[in-house]
Description:
Elements: E1 7-13, H1 17-26, E2 31-37, H2 40-50, E3 54-57, H3 66-74, E4 81-85, H4 90-98, E5 103-106, H5 111-127, E6 135-137, E7 140-143, E8 148-151, E9 154-155, H6 160-170, E10 177-178, H7 179-187, H8 194-209, E11 219-222, E12 226-229
Parallel strand pairs: 1-2, 1-3, 3-4, 4-5
Antiparallel strand pairs: 6-7, 7-8, 8-9, 10-12, 11-12
Helix pairs in contact: 2-3, 6-7, 6-8, 7-8
Amino acid sequence: MIAAALAQTILVVDDEPQIRRAVRNALATLSERVLEAASGGEGLDLAASGRPDLVILDLALPDMEGVDVCRELRGWTRVPIIVLSARDSEDEKVNLLRCGADDYITKPCGLRELEARVQVQLRRAAATAPGLAPIEVSGVRIDFEGRRVTRDGVMTHLTPLEWRILRALAMEAGRTLTHRQIFDAAWQRPFGNPQQYLRVHLTSLRRKIEPDPSSPVLIVTDPGVGYRFEFPEHSP
């Protein structure tokens, strides 16, 4: 198992006290302290003063929209942002991801799921810290600096396009990237149908790195939104 990441500080921005309490209790083993904010303005102030390692953000806040809080945070910090909201429209999810959110969880959600999603984001933040340390998961090792991928110690040949897709996803492990975000990172051109192009190349990439390509656990589909690179719970 990958060891659970421990944050020094997690910030919860939600105007419902019972939600904040439930989230605080669920994350007690993952963080030394959990800060709570009941409004967007208070959340931004605490983010600036408390320097959290992760932010959990509601969208329906009394003073401003959560998406605006997300935009403001992204103006000066790369701290992981998990949106926790009752809103579940596909357009809203895509918009939040484009504005810089790292994950989107729909209320109500199980606290174990929330805890797992937080662990993934904390691991991603640690893995993508300066230096681009290699990622090793489920027998697959991704060496960003060397541009090499091995599976069970054997070199895996990826096309340049497959490498750019995998690199974009793995560098943001645990975060769903939209079809357009992946397309822009891999193809680096403004035209084309992202979903159509990606479908073919993701199938090939999964055949090369997934333990079972028919049931992918590394590159997971977020239907209608995009894909994310995951750390399966059974990984060493």
